[in-house]
């Protein structure tokens, strides 16, 4: 499983030959100007919630690639009206896709589209593919619901928001990594705009002090599990 960071909360996940994008917000992110959305491959686009900083490039990429949008019922319905194919899910639901098993899990946040229309309730994803298990938290506060995840899934990586203000910050993300029983964390949702700028050194040191590993990738950088 290869995981590429495209800035903010945008990820590429490659499982075998299948390309998955998560929350593409790239063309609107000046820090990601070296990433060309017209070059990105996508068989699926997973969307955690409707906010623009997670959905901006969904339409363009889905229309070019024919990717299937996987999200909650309301978000999938929204994109189906634009002529995009979707796979609707809702919280607690699991589906066995051709690349692996996906569960849509709880997040504490909000989820409206930029035009104000209802984007359902926000979520995150647990993905099991290629014998690797990852948790993509989406935008969320720290929540006890995270403790449910390790009851069923032994995670290899937790992808957690760390930028604070709109989501968890560093200290809560450290607790979240305890809750999901995974000490290997990829941080996201930081530095994109003023409210969520963080000190990388301090963040990494705080995780290190708890014997945890916080990875922060350059935009375009990747890790392989
Ligand atoms: Ni959001
Ligand atoms: Mn966000």
Automatic annotation (TrEMBL):
Start and end residues of each Metallo-beta-lactamase domain: 7-189
Keyword field contains Ubl conjugation: no
Alphabetized InterPro entries for the sequence: Metallo-B-lactamas (IPR001279), RibonucZ/Hydroxyglut_hydro (IPR036866), UPF0173 (IPR022877), UPF0173_UPF0282_UlaG_hydrolase (IPR050114)
Record field: transmembrane: none
Pfam families in the record: Lactamase_B_2
Keyword vocabulary terms for this entry: Hydrolase
GO molecular function, one term: hydrolase activity
Keyword Hydrolase: yes
Family: Belongs to the UPF0173 family.
Protein name: UPF0173 metal-dependent hydrolase EM932_04320
Organism name: Flavivirga rizhaonensis
